[in-house]
Amino acid sequence: MTTKTASTAKVVTQMALMLALIIVAGAFALPVPAIGVPVVLQNMVIMLVGGVLGKKYGSLTVLVFLGLVALGLPILSGGRGGAALLIGPSAGFLVGFLLCPLVEGLLFQVFGQQHYWQIWLVYWLGGAVLINFCGSFSLALVSHVSWGAGLKMAAFYLPMDTAKVVVAALIHHRLQRQGLIG
User: What domain of life (predicted)?
Assistant: First the structure.
C-alpha cells in the first residue's frame, strides 16, 4: 500500500467514524415544543468534526450527513429526516452545521489551538454562536416574527450549547495531547 493510499484510507475512516458519531448523537434530543427545534447533542459532535477533521474533510463529512438527512434517513435528532427539514424551523441550524467546520478551521488559523482556552473560543464562536445565529433566521421566518425575535429564540439554546462547548473542547484538547489530532 502506498503512502498516499494509506493516507486516503485513514481520512476516509476518520470521516466515517465521525459521521457515525453524528448519527449516534441523534438519539439524544430534548424536545422544545414552544420553539420547534429540540436541544440536541449532534451540534457538539459537529463542533468536534470541524476540530478533528479540519475545514475540508469536516465540511465534507457534514455535507454527507445532511445529504443523508435530505434523502429521508431518520438520522437527525429525534429520528427525523427528509427534505422538508431543510425548509422548517431547523433549516438555519442545519446551515450552521455545514458552515461550522469551515469557520472553525479559519478561526483555528487565527487563534491557534495550543491551549484549551483557544480551542474553547473557536468551538464557542465557530460552533455554538454560529449555529444558533444561523438558526435564528429560520426560526424568525417560520414563526413569522422579526429576525430580532428569532435571534432571541435561538439565544435560548446558547447556555446549553456553551456547556457542550466545554465538553467538546476538553475532548479535542485530550485527543490533541494524545497526538491523535494536529
Answer: Bacteria
User: What number of other Cβ atoms are within 10 A of residue 53's Cβ?
Assistant: 23
Residue 10, CA distances (Å) to 6, 24, 45, 122, 146 in order: 6, 21, 19, 25, 46
The amino acid occupying position 182 is G
CA-to-CA distance for 152 and 71, rounded, in angstroms?
A: 31
Grid coordinates belonging to 98? 455545514
Residue linked to cell 468536534:
48
- Note the pTM of the prediction, 2 decimals: 0.92
- The per-residue pLDDT string of the chain (182 residues; one tens digit each, 9 = 90 and over) reads 678 887 899 999 999 999 999 999 999 888 888 777 888 999 999 999 999 999 999 999 999 999 999 999 999 988 999 999 888 889 999 999 999 999 999 999 999 999 999 999 999 999 999 999 999 999 999 989 999 999 999 999 999 999 999 999 999 999 999 998 87
Q: What is the dihedral of CA 25, 26, 30, 31, to 10 degrees?
A: 160
Of the candidates 160, 97, 106, which has an alpha carbon nearest to the alpha carbon of residue 131?
A: 97
Cell 485530550, located at residue: 174
Other CB atoms within 10 A of residue 20 CB: 11
